[in-house]
Amino acid sequence: MEGLQNIPAQEKGDVVEKKELILGAGKAILTCDGGVKNLKAELSDEEGDKERRRESVEDTTSEAEEKVSLGEKEATETEEKDCGTSSALEEGEAESGEGVNTNDEPLYAELCETEEEREQVRKDSQVYGQFSVEGLVGILGLPRALKVVVNKVENRHCADCNAPGPSWAELNHGVLVCISCSSIHREMGVSVSRIKSVQLDDFTLNMLKCLDEGNIKINEQLESCRPACFHKLQPNDQTVYRRRYIVAKYQEKVFCESEDKVQSENGDNLMPYMSGELEVVLMKKGRRNNDWPKRTVQVSQSKGTVSYWNAEESKDNILGCLPLSNLNAILFHSSELDQSGSSTILLLTTNELQPKKGKACTRNIFLKGSYHGKELVDLYLTIRQAKAALLSLEDPNMATRPFALMGWAFKRGKQLSDDWRRRWCVLDNCQLRYYDNPMNAVALGEINLGSAKEGYGIVDGYPLKTDCQVWTFTLKTNHRDYWLLVNDEQMVKKWKSALQEAIDSNNTHAV
Description:
Blueprint: H1 15-26, E1 30-32, E2 36-39, H2 46-55, H3 57-81, H4 83-96, H5 105-111, H6 115-123, H7 125-128, H8 133-140, H9 142-150, E3 168-170, E4 175-177, H10 179-188, E5 195-197, H11 205-211, H12 215-222, H13 239-251, E6 277-284, E7 294-300, E8 305-310, E9 318-323, E10 328-333, E11 344-354, E12 359-368, H14 374-390, E13 405-412, E14 420-428, E15 431-435, E16 445-448, E17 457-460, E18 472-476, E19 481-485, H15 489-510
Antiparallel strand pairs: 1-2, 3-4, 3-5, 6-7, 6-12, 7-8, 8-9, 10-11, 11-12, 13-14, 13-19, 14-15, 15-16, 17-18, 18-19
Helix pairs in contact: 1-3, 1-8, 2-3, 5-6, 8-9, 10-13, 13-14
């Protein structure tokens, strides 16, 4: 066990700590049901060890290492005697799929430096998994033991957004997070969250111990009371939502306390969105221009509405009032809507009567907030909470829905001789809308998709032969054909698949 020689004492004068670390590694008992017998390092009486420690540091250290070596030798003899039994057990385990930790074997094998170590790990992979952190450090040394802890099954995904391969350790709570979440943790300061890179920074034994419990168990504590209006953070969620989620989880601690116990230092309720009543000042895009004047936006669960008015005027002069029952709310990054800059936009969609068209059409309302986006996200959470309560929905995730797909495409008019026109297309549930600009308040057209029995379907290609047949497809409806062209083969597949899925969902409802 070369790793034992590499364990540094915390301080030169702290003899006891150094000896206990060495002895702890020797005491890491390897146990495997049936196949491998108990391996124990015969250690001297602890009182005698203490006396020898007082007499000589060097003698004590040598003696400890000798005893560990003795334990290894005894283990080897035991394994040779039971070689036949172990082989038979391994064959049985291979057939049944039990008793061998196949998931962790490649990890440990990779950490071994010699072929002999690798072979031993292959045989006793489950046994290695039973080491304490001190035992792992004693055998593998700190750097390799850190790899073992980081690559445990429960640590292989970010504790916050579930992204694979987290490479940053948050030591105040003992979790591993991804680089995107780590930047939010750094913003909160070391008093709340202490971040270290598992690839670049040095770790101590105590730091490894703090990470050993694993992300899953720690999250059971930190997210035990997560409000339902917070959907679980995902790797592709907007930065403002990521920030609001992490601050609520670690700094405000609203995910591990009941609502009535969550208050700030000055007594304010940190969860206003839970009441379904909120009033915030945001910027709203003009309906017919690109101005962003300030508006006070109010959500009222009791009234079942979302209303807004000029931030500098009284709320008696309401500019708009939207019913909660058919309101949808989605957070977007400006780039997703083909806009310059780096801001987050909250899109509200609702059905509104259009006098010119003589029918109800979808209306888009775009809102922006401050850099940190707290007010914007709180509005989003309040809408989810209020609508779920208003419609008696068990899951607030059903109160809002993301778009199935959106992006640029070319659409031809009713005649084959018409020009191709670039359109921003949005597939929302079973409705396809198209705009000449992603930030338009009202669509140029809406196509409500029906079932295949009603004549709706997707056909490859285009009636006229062109050089771009692979990029075109036809959307058939019960009143006309829509010819669409997307200048990317992968996006064509995505659009055809998403549209077909919407049509199939109507087939299911029809049945």
